Amino acid sequence: MPTGLSLCLDNVAGVFFPGQTITGQLTVQTTKEKTFKEISVKFKGFSKVHWTERRTERRNGKNVSKTVHYRSSEEYYSSSYRVWGNGSESQLPPGTHNFNFTFVLPLNIPSSFESETGQVRHLCKAKIDVPWGFDKTSTQPYSVNSLYDLNTDPVAKHPIQCNEHKYLCCLWCKSGPLSMVLRVSRSGYVPGEKILINAECSNKTNSVVNYTEANIHQIIKFHAQGKTKTIDRKVAQIKKEAIPEGDDYIWSEVGLVVPPLPPSKLQFCNNIEIDYKFKFKVCPSGCHGNLDHEVPLIIGSIPLRENFTLFQPAAPFQPLPLPSTSYPTPMPPIAPSAPIGGAAPPAGFNISPYNPNIPPAQPGFVAPTAPVFPGVLNYPDLPPPSYNECMFGATGIADDSDDESGGKFAPKYASYNLSKGMAAAPPPYNESMLPPEMNNENAAFIPGGMSGQP
């Protein structure tokens, strides 16, 4: 029977914040005595970008096409140490062997991110050094969430509003106006929160409006070798039905839920940038162009304080007991933790007394199974979030795992649970936002007197 090697994090959610401590166990199973040089564990955080472009060149009077590769990478931390052995050949007895490990994450590291073109990954990798044979490895990815506090960004409170109209022309004929008045109370949101949309769409043209639509777009910029590649991904959408010619339609507090996403900017990463946009559009039939409005949107991980009451605490994880026998971690013992809020420890394996993720070791102590959310340090009244997988699902990490399992991984992000029956009050309707053509003859356009309610 081959040697078994596996990694298990005490934090079963697999989510951590910069400066927190990762703890877990490395398990080796053998049915007979084995000879190894050492067993080690390594923690690594890095980003990498890669894409290709086709380029045509003139050679010997002929056009020749070739594929050009663009690559870039960054390393945020990389530390390893032995949990067993000393580098010389030694015998490991048969049986199941558990080795504890502990690692403190650095402070200024980016959130996890996955896409086809670029990734930010954080991995724990165990390795058995087999003399005169193939090394045995096992990889455990984990999610890192860097905090983006919307309360520190004044733009997050800016309302989104517009008053736009256009005329549809066909040859020498000009129709009445196609108009929209849009109002969203603010520009900053967290995953799980609803963007409450208030919009009045008036179709005084001679054409049918096929649909009206609101969506969120994720704009990703990848940088490599002096070049930039931009990808636009639609991450959320609501579409409403057609508006007949001469009719109106109103969006009244229509909620567009923000899915699990990394925060805006992807701080501390220099080769991948992330921004978000909110788009609203009215789409007429035929060959006419859309009437649309597009503005920046900010996605954070700590909501605006005035909206804390909209959320309810996430359901807690149930602790699971650890195996009763294990090898001790080959490091100085963890001292009693200081009060939460002290200075963060240096990254790596030399643990200082500060350890926000682990209470003082006591008889019968069970390691935490969910991350301690750092947002409570500044906002004790903030309900803790849950942690949900990215909306794009899992991607393969075989190129970074170096082991037989390969496997897939979906990063998890802080996401908030809305309290039932609670919603932010819409902003007061401002009649002056209507186009001049609609102030008098279209009084029915005002909320409460409009046809086509969603």
From TrEMBL:
Occurrences of domain Arrestin C-terminal-like (ranges): 174-304
GO cellular component: cytoplasm
Parts forming coiled coils: none
Residue span of region Disordered: 428-454
GO biological process assignments: protein transport
Secretion signal, residue range per the UniProt entry: none
Family: Belongs to the arrestin family.
Protein name: Putative arrestin domain-containing protein 3-like
The species this protein was found in: Penaeus vannamei
